[in-house]
Amino acid sequence: MGKRDWRKLDESDVRVRPGKGTRPRSKRRPEHADAETAMVIGVDRGRWTCAMESGAVVTAMRARELGRTPVVVGDQVGIVGDTSGLPDTLARIVRVEERTSVLRRTADDTDPFERVVVANASQLIMVVALADPPPRTGFIDRCLVAAYAGGLEPVLCLTKSDLASPDSLLALYTELDVPVVVTRSDEEPAALRARLTDTVSCLIGHSGVGKSTLVNKLVPDANRAVGVVSGVGKGRHTSTQAVALRLPEGGWVVDTPGIRSFGLAHITPDDIVKAFPDFAEAAEECPPGCGHLGSPEDPGCMLDELVPDAPGRLASLRRLLASRAGRDDHAD
């Protein structure tokens, strides 16, 4: 104490250094004004492959300030650090831009955890074989629901038309005005190529329908594995993760793993009806909680009054609603 009288000290004379847990943390985060824009084209074990606007392809990690912000194929992101794309270099993703569309699914209709398949795609190409394996309309309906709810334009791509006619299947979707592309295994997919050029499109379908074969024709250096159909009519999974591939003519195609089911637990009936402007206004007058399936399931549904005006289109819409509700016979 020296010559000072300790009895005259008060609390203002005592200096206490706060512990690490009590220090106020700044909520300010770096703005990263110098971040370069890139598109995520692949994800693998905590590393993201990104295509820069300059054409370079870089590997990046998620910056700490992003926390657990999900980053998926198709996301537009801001990147800092080494963006040269040279071997053994690593950049950082510091920003994820707002998404224009999102394709989501759940494992099944009771799973509360939704999985983002791809972001910012403008089209969902539903690849369906006309034979070997036979088409499953329930799967098509569920993909349509996910596309409408996520802001993507659905396109029906029918493969193996050399084995079966598409007419009976197409008749089911006439009222929905879904664009259709028909391909054969022994011909180049010229019509599909033209539709994909200068867009970001997502291909989805069961294993064995010819999706990887199409990708190999569209992107010759893709080298996607091609599988065969099993004896029970279900294909083997040949693509193990979603990946965006640059098209020679411009644009991107996102190839997704072959899936056996498409859960829609995250989508409500209103999400589906909003994609149909001719029905959306009437649906706003429906009772709370209406599933829009009509009587007897949903008494008081205002869409019933539209049946005389658009019977075929309303029937198609309600088939999609039934698919979402798990009441279809071919959900997988």
TrEMBL record:
For the ligand (Zn(2+)), the binding residues are 286, 290, 292, 301
Any one Gene Ontology MF annotation carried by this entry is: rRNA binding
Instruction: Please state every residue range assigned to the domain named CP-type G.
Output: 110-262
EC number in record: 3.6.1.-
Q: Where is the composition biased (Basic and acidic residues)?
A: 7-16
An example Gene Ontology CC term for this record: cytoplasm
Composition bias, Basic residues: 17-30
| Keywords associated with the record | Cytoplasm, GTP-binding, Hydrolase, Metal-binding, Nucleotide-binding, Ribosome biogenesis, RNA-binding, rRNA-binding, Zinc
Q: Which residues bind GTP?
A: 159-162, 205-213
Where is the segment annotated Disordered? 1-33
The UniProt record lists the EngC GTPase domain at 119-260
Question: How is this protein organized at the quaternary level?
Answer: Monomer. Associates with 30S ribosomal subunit, binds 16S rRNA.
**PANTHER family, sorted:** SMALL RIBOSOMAL SUBUNIT BIOGENESIS GTPASE RSGA, SMALL RIBOSOMAL SUBUNIT BIOGENESIS GTPASE RSGA 1, MITOCHONDRIAL-RELATED
Q: What does this protein do?
A: One of several proteins that assist in the late maturation steps of the functional core of the 30S ribosomal subunit. Helps release RbfA from mature subunits. May play a role in the assembly of ribosomal proteins into the subunit. Circularly permuted GTPase that catalyzes slow GTP hydrolysis, GTPase activity is stimulated by the 30S ribosomal subunit.
* Full protein name: Small ribosomal subunit biogenesis GTPase RsgA
The gene is: rsgA
